[in-house]
Amino acid sequence: MAGSSPKALILFGPPGSGKGTQAKLLTSSLRVPHISTGDMLRERVASADELGRQLKELMQAGRLVPDELVNAMVEDRISRQDCEPGFILDGYPRTIQQAGALEASLKRRGYQSVVIHLKVDYTKIIRRIAGRRQCAVCGTLYNLDSNPPRVAEKCDRDAADLVIREDDKESVIRARLDGYERDTRPVLEFYAAAGQPVHEVDGSEGSPEEILSRIRGAMSLA
């Protein structure tokens, strides 16, 4: 990440937007760490240290992880040497409190924030995800639009029935998108109010590589 200060790329995008794919491509392209809070939570629980034990108790009880614990976990991660050239944040911040804590930490450490919002038309997301099918026997994945089976609703390998996974049902997808809009919109407004540009990148059309190029272009403007 070129520039006078190392950059913290903060990547937002709704479920089904391809954000995970872009995070991986950016990691390879920019050669900086990809920090996913979901992955970090699982790794921290597995470590069985004090913070890991607290997280495990909360998650087993079905409670949300408090902002303070997530903030502490991210603060610890970005303090490591491999983050000195910059890093990519995926899934954080999720609340205004997290965003405030992050910005204070980045300013203290001398990082420049670059906020990217990957925008995809929700109708396309619903069609994309709702078109997924999986073989009930071997687990092979299909998509009715981009990778359909040769025989409708039958697996190419064993002719078993294809099923819709619970997470891919339209009602579930719509609920996840509503939750994203409800939770993420205030965070994006927080950045705008703080004078931090939010770079909107179209993720609706084009190959993953083309979308990556748009993100790199937006970063060059930061």
Could you list some keywords that capture this structure?
222 residues, alpha/beta, Rossmann fold, three-stranded antiparallel sheet, 16% strand, globular
What does this structure look like?
This protein is α/β, with parallel strands linked by helices. The protein has a domain at 7-121 and 184-220: 3-Layer(aba) Sandwich (Rossmann fold), CATH 3.40.50. Helices cover 48% and strands 16% of the residues. The chain has eight helices and eight strands. It has helices at 19-30, 37-47, 50-60, 67-78, 96-109, 122-130, 170-193, 208-220, and strands at 7-12, 34-36, 86-90, 112-119, 132-135, 141-143, 162-163, 198-202. The strands form two sheets. It has a five-stranded parallel sheet, sandwiched between helices. Strands 6-5-7 form a three-stranded antiparallel sheet. Helix 2 crosses helix 3 (50-60) and helix 6 packs antiparallel against helix 7. The protein is globular, with a radius of gyration of 19 Å. The model has no long low-confidence stretch (mean pLDDT 90).
